[in-house]
Amino acid sequence: MQRFFRGRDSAKKQFIAGSITPLVLYMAFWTLLPLVWGVALAFFDYSPRRAGGFLGFGADNPFVSLQHFQTMLNFAPDAPLEAQQFHIGIKITLLFVALIVPLNLMITLPLALLIESVHDRVKGVFRIIFFLPVLAPSVGVAIMWGFIFNPQWGLLNAVIGKFTGRLVGINWTGDPNLVVWGIPVALFGIVIAYLWQDMGYNLVIFIAALQGIPQAVKDAAKIDGANWGQMLTKIIIPLLMPTILLTAVLTMISAFQVFDIVQVMTEGGPDDQTQVLLLNIYNYAFRYQKMGWAAAVSIVMFLMILSISIVQTRLLRTEWEY
Amino acid sequence: MSAIVRPRPPHQFRLRPAYFLLIPLSLVALVPFIWMVLGSFKSGREIRKIPPTFFPQEFTLENYKRVLNDEDLPLGIFYRNSAIIALANVVQVLFTSSLFGYIFAKFEFKGKKALFWFILSLMMIPHQMTMIPGYLILAKLGLINNLLGLIIPAAIDAFGIFLFRQFALSIPNELIDAARVDGAGEFYIFRRIVLPQLGPALATFGMLTFMFNWNAYLWPLIVLTEKNVRTLPIILTWYSSRMVSNDHLTMAASVLVILPVLFIFLLVQRWIVEGIALSGLKG
Predict the structure, then answer these.
(1) Could you give the CA distance from residue B241 to residue B227 in angstroms, rounded to a whole number?
(2) How would you classify residue B74: left for phi > 0, otherwise alpha for psi between -120 and 50, otherwise beta?
(3) Is the pLDDT of residue A44 over 50?
């Protein structure tokens, strides 16, 4: 018997070694190496076009120490263009996140309540309709909204024209002079397209959370004579609080990384007004070939997202009980 | 018999006006799709009309004919590219996630904790952190403009391993030990005993992985710069920027690129919704 188990053990060991060894090697090459490489790039003036030493480092791609990060902190009016565009990128991205998160929650939570309140048979239909854009490629979403915002033959101008009785030719996503409350209108256009696609995620999460509220809790409140408003503010919202926090953080993290819709709809324009951080990184790395600078900006962006993720794990660690 | 009244399901907060809000809102939510589909049936002359028409006045299939016969736009090739990448990634990610999820759940070995924590912490690292060096590695390996460049680096999904570990934890040890006593090999146990137990998770996570790969844009945009290796999302932006004042053609092309697969996703949306609700996963 003992011999049998020893045999089993070696079979187990073989199985583990045979699986974990390739995993470790693979991750060393495809995750650890790029991570280290990415951090190293941030300290070099690196361009793939120029010749360098080992892995392209050194020689024509010199070590510049913390110079990229110092440039980022240069707020002088005559700061290099990349510093100015980096500041715009940070500002626009924060603005975008600050618009998306509250708007998303303000739409999806009431919408989930509405959908949960209708008859079971049609519930699914409404859920699918609002979920549909999630399934579409974001490139398609950007193109579809482009047809609506088109200055000449777009739907939005046509609808406004119908109500005002005038010919309207507003260039929603291309006119740098259109600014409302200090926010470029082009950014609002992106916010609308992004919200339209993104809200399906939170909607289904909220619907699942609403269905998870025990019937007994709701029954008890009803017996105690709670009306609809009290039910909402005293029972439903407090019980949904962990879900609301979680979705807020997830929405924030993904909004930080917005790229597809901006790149397709405006390419960062007009006049860099929608130049979000990831688009900025993409442009510097792959269009201007300033990969060292772009890698440094990536690190800043990563640290911003990491700080949100840390808040997220703190929130998730909290025990919530009904 | 018909006199028996079926008890109505209890509705805790019945909101009659819900329909008056939901129906107009759903129509508004569908407008971008409707506008694109209607536009794809309008003639070039009609699409440029100011003010624009909503319904096509003279319904035409000409746009579809032109898009499908456009030699610069061999849609079949791009469908094939997208399908190869998405399917290959679903297969390999499901295999590695379930295998390593099972191993992390049911086996003890040296360094297991450290390795698992490393994988967990990878979930917090956004993709753009490794985007630039990832490109440089692919360039060194000569995998730029090669579909393999989108497949080989995508074999491991940290979130998938985490998810499948959670599911594998609930598989009873007795089931696995019984198979061992019967003399089954370890890989046989994984394939024949463990995998069937993970069935629903495989379906859910497989659908999500397929959808994310099918719709992916940024990474394919970087890796695939030559036309014939491109995927559908990239070719769609390429086409729309080339057809800048021919919206009727872009609309027809968009319909052909977006709607068929959207319809398939719609058929399996139950699993996708389940996956998102389960994990709070974001694209």
Answers:
(1) 14
(2) beta
(3) yes
> Are the beta carbons of B258 and A158 separated by less than 8 Å?
no
B162 phi/psi in degrees, rounded to 5: -60, -45
What is the per-residue pLDDT across A127-162, written as a single tens digit (0 to 9) for each? 889 999 999 999 999 999 999 999 888 899 999 988
Put simply, whether B141 touches A (Cβ < 8 Å) is no
Query: What is the domain extent for residue A12?
Result: 1-41
List the Cα angle A287/A99/A243 in 5-degree steps: 110
Does the pTM exceed 0.80?
yes
The pLDDT value recorded for residue B14 is: 54
- Whether residue B128 and residue A301 make contact (CB cut-off 8 A), yes or no, is yes
- CATH assignment of B75-279? 1.10.3720.10
Position A63 in a domain: no
Q: Hey, are the CB atoms on B51 and A161 less than 8 Å from each other?
A: yes
Chain A residue with CA closest to B11: the answer is A117
Q: How far is CA A66 from CA A28, A113, B275, in A?
A: 26, 51, 43
For A268-305, the pLDDT digits (tens) are: 889 889 999 999 999 999 999 999 999 999 999 999 99
Question: For residues A221 and A293, which has the higher predicted lDDT (pLDDT)?
Answer: A293
User: Distance from B31 to chain A by nearest Cα, in Å?
Assistant: 9
Strand, helix or coil for residue A61 = strand
- State how far the Cα of A266 lies from the Cα of A253, in Å rounded to an integer: 22
In a domain, A160, yes or no: yes
Q: How big is the A-B interface in CB pairs under 8 Å?
A: 249
Do A86 and A33 lie in one domain? The reply is no
Residue A175 inside a domain? The answer is: yes
Distance CA A271, CA A273 (A): 5
Q: Does A53 map to a domain?
A: no
Domain ranges in chain B are 75-279
Do A163 and A295 reside in the same domain of the chain? yes
Could you tell me the two tokens for A176? 């740098």
Residue B145 dihedral angles phi and psi, to the nearest 5°:
65, 35
Same-domain pairing of A4 and A124: no
